Amino acid sequence: MRPSGRKLDEMRVVSIETGVMRHAEGSCLIKVGNTHVLCTASVEDRTPPFLKNTGLGWVTAEYGMLPRATNTRNRREAATGKQGGRTVEIQRLIGRALRAGVDRSALGERQIVIDCDVIQADGGTRCASITGAWVALRLAVDKLMKAGQIVSDPMIGHVAAVSCGIYAGQPVLDLDYDEDSAAGVDGNFVMLGDGRLIEVQMSGEGTVFARSQMDQLLTLAEKGVGELVAAQKAAL
User: Which top-rank group of organisms is this from (predicted)?
Assistant: First the structure.
C-alpha cells in the first residue's frame, strides 16, 4: 500500500492554471499533488553569444525553491552567493527538455527564459517544473505568433516529465516525498507527447534493478506523461 493510498499506476491530482503572472509573456501555476511550481516565460530579443548570426533561437531555464517550500527552512541561495549543484543540474535538465520540443530555426534569433519557482515541494519538483514550463513556453510562443513576430510554429510537440520508482518492492508512478525518500530505485522520465524519450534519469538508491523493472517503470511513465499532456491541453 502506498502512503497516499494511491494505486501503483495512479498519478497525483494534476492542475494547471494559466495566466497567473501579469507581466510575463507566458505563465502558469502547476500543482501535482502537494508539489506546486510557478512557471514563467520571458522573451528576450537576443541570443547567447555563441548563437549570434546563426538564425537560431534559444530556450533556457532557471530553477529555484522558496525557503519554506519544504518542511524546514532552506537558506536562499542568493544569501550564500552561489547556486547549489542540485539547482544547476535541474535547471540544465529543464532547458534541455524544452529545447528538444522546439524548432530553434523557426524560433528565430531570440531567447526565451523559463523561470521555475517551487512554492511547495512534495517530491517530483523537476518533473512538475518541466511539465509546467512547457505550458508557459507555449503561451509565450503563441503571443509571438499572434504579433506576427514568428511566421511558423516552432513548437514540435508537447514536453512533459514524470517520476517512477521501486517503492516497497513495487513499481510505482509519480512518487511523492514519502515514497521518494524511501524508494529503492528512483527515475525521472522526460518525453515528447508522442511517447518519444528526451531524457531518462535512473539510479538505484541502496539497491539495484533489473531490465524488466526498468521496462515496467517506462510503461508507467508513458501512462503518466499521457495524463500530463492531457492536462496541458486542457489548460490551454
Answer: Bacteria
